[in-house]
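CdaR family transcriptional regulator, Shewanella colwelliana. Tokens?
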Amino acid sequence: MYFLDASLAQQIVNRTMAIIGHNINVMNNQGTILGSGDPHRIGSVHEGALLAISQNRTVEINAAGADNLQGVKPGINLPLHYQGEIIGVIGITGEPEHLIAYGELLKMSAEMIVEQANSLELVQWQNRQQEEFILQLIKGEHRDMTHLQSWATRLNIDLNTPRVVAVIQVQDDNAQTTANSLLKQVLNLLETPSRGNLIAMSSMTELVILKPAFLDGKQWSANLESQRIDQLLKRLPSEMSAKLNIALGHYFPQPTDIHRSYQTAKETLRFGMQMHPEQSKYLFEDYALLVMLSGLKDDWRGQQLLQPFERLIEQDSNQQLRKTLTAYLNHFGDQQACAKHLFVHRNTLRYRLEKIAQITNIDLNSLNGLLQLYLGQAMLAAK
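Tokens:
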């Protein structure tokens, strides 16, 4: 906390001088002038303020007394208090007998300005701490759970509350400042009412929301949460909602797995925007296979799944075989239904399937073979 700095001191000077018309000086608790109606006095030490601080009382200085003190003009100096401590002095230049009547009123006004500014700073500090805590949670790098629990307790956050992550991203063609402004408007909507949400800006264009998972107080329901997202989107002005995309991740029962929920929300958002850019809401349940397979893309297991399908791509320049395979998989191996869908004769379909089997070295008549090709196809989409 800063209590009293140069910016706040000058704010007090400007506001009080506008009322009384006398020069005002505001000193810190070392007697240094931080703010003044006379800029040349800023930075100098005010001996009258030192007296007010050391004696913790109002000090009146007449013309004769001012001549014996350094950096002092006639006036009165009143100590400023905050939470029981002397944090500085407000000095009013002029004849003491003319100033004493409203000196206490100015002192009270100055202390109120300090209290308001510090209260705002405290709220902002708490918000920054909570935001940093959330960002650490979703990184999943915390190994000292004792420290994490202690941090959560200081922020009045219950780590054991079941939560699921949603990610909101702004798609805006203009400057990032515009996107940031949109996110702040959404943030205000989410905080009123808060409903226990923990919210942080993870970038200039992204909000992360750790939402209580049990909306009915009993169990996780993606459908209920989806309805809540719809309600949020309805509260947004149409021109704003058109620029937002929101994705809901998977719910993991263990509180320490909240970073996994964040990862699934991010991947759901990526696939949703890639496959259905016309939509604004994406649920993990609709992209679950792709999201789970995306974790294998850099793993040798994923590479093995991809190999047969990649061989097919290399030898299928017109994509005819891939379209045939997609239709075959979508019809669960029903050749008659597949041929009808493709508007080809069954013999033509059979020829293509044999070609696919030859290229991929996969038995299309076995469940394992079909599954491997299906997963390979999904893996390719997940890259």
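DSSP finds 15 helices and ten strands in the chain.
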